[in-house]
Design a protein that fits this description.
This protein is an alpha/beta fold. The protein has 2 domains: about 140 residues, Cytidine Deaminase, domain 2 (3-Layer(aba) Sandwich); about 200 residues, Dihydrofolate Reductase, subunit A. It has 10 helices and 16 strands. Strands 11-10-9-8-12-6-13-16-15 form a 9-stranded mixed beta sheet. Strands 2-1-3-4-5 form a 5-stranded mixed beta sheet, with helices on both faces. A two-stranded antiparallel ribbon has the order 7-14. Helix 3 runs parallel beside helix 4. It is elongated, with a radius of gyration of 22 Å. The two termini are about 40 Å apart. One of its GO terms (biological process) is riboflavin biosynthetic process.
């Protein structure tokens, strides 16, 4: 039977999810305030630059006098530094809350235990680690960025039942059904950036935006080593932030940056190091087999999402194959099936 504490933390995690796609590059955070076994206030971090979860939850409490006897559940350690907003740890202290239960510690060096120490120094009872694994999965992008110094990398492709993702000569083929295509747009809205290679950009001429789901367009990333893509392609329309990684020099334009890489070093480590400097915390890779297989071989991936359709091609460009991974999710999406794999921690060589 679930304890009351678990129920309240799960509620806080559910609230945190409501900020998906809007708080980036900040983590997802939810907060629940209780008094004598009932919820008196709750909130979540709704958008980057806006009030944090604790601020919204405490403001939702009608009788502020109850806070002195309250128990607060928050999914991530309250911040202890000034950023876009004042420290939440200071606000909890100011409101005189009695107890704080935290799901995850914040790995950000600006916080990293300082928020909890502030609370304890003020006489507040602090408990940590409740539903820790669930909290880490929710904020896997944030934790990967902080702990591995690179974005969280999601590889996505659609394949036929006989294992192909394009025609024999890379001609684009609509493999997935309507529902699956809508879900892909949801994924785009949830991630900070979306990446394709030269061949996919050339043959598909994609927009890489969010059209079938409400949300923010991701930053577009294209690998174009020799600047061979036509300048009139949709990727160069300046309608959303776009990064082109290349070995050739070209002047940047508004919403279109050309980033010159070294030909002497491995390409993708350079790309992800640059994205780290730009504070990009997650990348959805919708590239073709060259890009996907390169990342798989290099071990530069965290999650794989495969949309499998019952149609067959008989011949074409084969879908990638990858080693052992944990199947986290398998569900039907209309005429397709979705398989979500998570890379086990033991496989990492970073």
């Amino acid at each position: 039977m679930r304890t009351f504490d678990e129920l309240m933390m799960r509620r806080a995690l559910d609230l945190a999810r409501l900020g998906t796609g809007f708080t980036r590059p900040n983590p997802l955070v939810g907060c629940v305030v209780t008094h004598e076994g009932r919820i008196i206030g709750e909130g979540w971090h709704q958008q980057y630059g806006g009030p944090h979860a604790e601020v919204n939850a405490l403001a939702a409490v009608r009788d502020q006098a109850l806070l002195a006897q309250s128990r607060v559940y928050v999914t991530l350690e309250p911040c202890s530094h000034y950023g876009k907003t004042p420290p939440c740890a200071d606000l909890l202290i100011e409101k005189g809350v009695r107890e704080v239960v935290v799901c995850n510690l914040d790995p950000n060096p600006l916080v990293a235990g300082r928020g909890l120490q502030k609370l304890r120094d003020a006489g507040i009872q602090v408990e940590t680690g409740l539903l820790e694994a669930e909290g880490r999965w929710l904020n896997r992008r944030f934790f990967t960025f902080q702990e591995k110094n690179r974005p969280y990398i999601i590889l996505k492709w659609a394949e036929t039942a006989d294992g192909f993702l394009a025609g024999r000569y890379f001609q684009p083929i609509h493999i997935s059904g309507e529902l699956a295509r809508m879900v892909v747009h949801q994924w785009r809205a949830e991630e900070q950036a979306i990446l394709v290679g030269t061949r996919t950009a050339l043959h598909d001429n994609p927009h890489l935006n969010v059209r079938e789901w409400p949300g923010l367009d991701p930053t577009r990333i294209v690998i174009d080593k020799n600047l061979s893509l036509p300048p009139k392609h949709h990727l160069f329309d300046s309608q959303q932030p776009t990064l082109v990684y290349t070995y050739r020099q070209r002047d940047s334009k508004p919403n279109l940056d050309f980033v010159v890489l070294s030909e002497a070093d491995n390409l993708f480590p350079q790309v992800f190091a640059d994205l780290r400097q730009r504070n990009v915390q997650s990348v959805l890779v919708e590239g073709g087999p060259t890009v996907l297989n390169s990342l798989l071989r290099a071990g530069l991936w965290d999650e794989v999402r495969v949309l499998r359709n019952p149609k067959t091609l008989g011949a074409g460009i084969a879908a990638p194959h990858f080693g052992l991974a944990a199947l986290r999710e398998h569900l039907p999406l209309g005429e397709d099936e979705l398989f979500v794999y998570h890379r086990p921690a033991a496989q990492t060589n970073e």
